[in-house]
Design goal:
This protein has 153 residues and is an all-alpha fold. The chain has 4 helices and no strands. The relative contact order is 0.13.
């Protein structure tokens, strides 16, 4: 097996695992939109917590995570249809970036969901701040690692 074939195989394996992550994030985001925090009102079928700003933030960020994940899935779909190496690399880079943003948005959606349904003592706000700090630190680490990831060129 030549060096180019090894690189292509390695990229294909990374792409498959990446696509699995994107599909899971999209699925979870879609499911979260229907299993809303607080549930539904039996009288009118609307979300019980729909007037709370934290719920509205949850819904916006969860929708953003869904859109970003579906866009990443579409980028993977276009790589399967394309034979041009430069375009494949471009679509994979876009998919990778959209996935990072989608996972980050899903993390923020989770935190806003917790904030919506749990009581709000002072320590809870600090704990959410630490979770967000950890999430953004992890995103920074992924960004640094992504510079080391090579695609076949």
């Amino acid at each position: 097996m030549s060096e180019d074939e090894k690189k292509k195989t390695e990229v294909d394996e990374k792409e498959e695992s990446h696509l699995l992550v994107v599909a899971v994030v999209a699925t979870v985001s879609f499911a979260a939109a229907f299993t809303l925090p607080g549930g539904y009102d039996d009288k009118n079928g609307m979300a019980i917590l729909s007037n709370k700003p934290a719920f509205q933030a949850f819904f916006v960020v969860d929708s953003l995570a869904l859109v970003l994940s579906v866009a990443a899935v579409l980028c993977h779909f276009y790589t399967a249809l394309n034979d041009n190496k430069k375009q494949v690399i471009l679509f994979l880079e876009w998919a990778y970036g959209l996935t990072k943003l989608g996972v980050g948005a899903k993390g923020v959606a989770f935190l806003t969901n917790l904030y919506t349904v749990l009581p709000h003592p002072l320590w809870d706000c600090h704990l959410n701040f630490y979770y967000l700090s950890l999430l953004f630190s992890f995103q920074h680490y992924l960004r640094r690692c992504s510079r080391k990831i090579y695609f076949y060129k």
